[in-house]
Amino acid sequence: MAFRPIFVPGSTKGALFKEVSVQFNWHRGMAASQKKKNVAELHAEASFLGFGEILEVSTKSDSELGRRLSAFRLDVELSGISSKIECIYQASKVFEKGGPFEEIVHLSPLEAKRYFKARKLGLIKCFSFKGQRYENLPFHAFYDWLFLRALAEHKLFLSERLSRFDAFSDIEFNPSKSINTQARSVAIIATLIKRDQLDACASDFDFFRAHLEKIEKKTSTQIQLGLGSFEAEKSKK
C-alpha cells in the first residue's frame, strides 16, 4: 500500500488548491507499465472518495493532454531564454554552496534534472536567472510560476479542458522526497483561469506569491513538513 496526493482546484474564493491524500495498492518496479498500474489504482481509489474525472499530469499519463502538461514537455520563456520548464527550473537553483547553473539550461530535461545528483550543494536558498532573483517561499512557488508563464497564452484552450477534471495527479511525486509536482501546478492554473487571474499571476512572480500565501494553513504545513532535509528534488517526471 502507498499514499499519494491528488490536487483539487479551488473555488472562486479561498485556497488555490486542496491536497487530498489517497491510499492505494502499489505496484513495485520502475517500468512504465508498473507506473501506469499505479495511476489506475490511485484513480480508482480516488473515485471511491467521490472524485470523478482525474487527470494524470506526467509523461506516464494515458492522456495526451496530461503528457503535454509535463515539465519535460512544456516550453517556457524567462528573461529572453526559452527552454523546457524542467531545464529552466534546474538552471535557476541557488544552493548554499553554489548556483545558479545557467549553463545547463539547454541540456535535455532528464540531463538537467540529474545534474545535481552527485553534488553536495546543501539546501536551495533561492532561484536566480539572468540576474533576476526569485524567492524560495512558498517552497513550490517558483516551479508553479514557471507553469503559469508557459500556459498563460493557452488559457482559452485549457479553460474548457481542465474544467472537465475534478482533480489532478502525478504518480512520480512522493511528498516525502520532493516538494514540486506538476499536478499541483495544473490545479493552481485551473483555479486561476476560473478566477480570471492567470495573466496577472503569470506576469508578476511576487503577485503570484501573495496569492499562494492565502492557501489554507493545514495545506501549507503539510508542504513544509514534506521538506525533510532534502538537498535536491528526487522525483522523476
- Please give the count of helices: 10
* Poorly predicted runs of 5 or more residues: 216-237
The count of domains is 1
Quick one: how many beta strands?
9
Structural class: alpha+beta
Distance between the termini: 21 Å
Radius of gyration over C-alpha positions, nearest whole angstrom? 17 Å
Biggest sheet character:
3 strands, antiparallel
Write structural notes for this entry.
The chain has 10 helices and 9 strands. The protein has 237 residues and is α+β, with helices and mostly antiparallel strands. The protein starts with a strand and ends in a 12-residue tail after the last helix. The strands form 4 sheets. It has a 3-stranded antiparallel sheet with strand order 6-7-8. It has helices spanning 32-48, 64-68, 85-91, 109-114, 141-151, 155-162, 182-194, 198-203, 205-212, 217-225; strands spanning 2-9, 17-24, 54-56, 75-78, 81-84, 93-95, 124-129, 132-135, 167-169. The longest helix has 17 residues, at 32-48. The chain has one domain.
Quick recap:
With 237 residues, this protein is an alpha+beta fold. It is built from 10 helices and 9 strands. Strand 4 and strand 5 form a beta hairpin.
